[in-house]
Amino acid sequence: MSSSSLSDPNDLTDFVVKQGNGVKGLSEIDLKTVPRQYVQPPEERLDKNQVVDDESIPVIDVSNWDDPKVAASICEAASKWGFFQIVNHGIPLEVLDNVKEAAHKFFQLPTEDRRKYLKENSPTPTVQLSTSHSPSVEMVLEWKDVLIHFYVPGDESTNLWPPVSK
């Protein structure tokens, strides 16, 4: 696939969504420019003059989940920033590193192997691969591929997870 053959919006949707190549596939075909479907109109872009340099990403200590201040901090950070970092959550660093490594390995798999887990193809509802959003719903596509894992203790479907995720 060449980047010039993706000028038609239908071809782009087919390549990215239906064929399961995702944004990763776009990044591998030597694009000269970002496809217009992924470009925010100027009026929707972040105004650099509104960025406050002296603030940092909120860091929330969740060592005491029962403290009402924790929930209030999460709500405030989510509404003001859209994201935050939590600390003292009790998840060992090794577990977090293993999750990141598994995600990297998954996205390094050939497209055919990743495609098996597209939301509409996945052999299990506990693993879903998706990319962007529907062009009929979203004004601008998001430059992202997403792998979602749901874990339910004792659920047999973990046997159907991608081998690199186990």
From TrEMBL:
Annotated ranges, domain Non-haem dioxygenase N-terminal: 57-162
Keyword Lipid biosynthesis: no
InterPro entries: DIOX_N, IPNS-like_sf
Pfam families per UniProt: DIOX_N
Keyword Protein biosynthesis: no
Keywords for this protein: Iron, Metal-binding, Oxidoreductase
Protein name: Bi-functional coumaroyl CoA and feruloyl CoA ortho-hydroxylase F6H2-2-1-like
Source organism of this protein record: Coffea arabica (Arabian coffee)
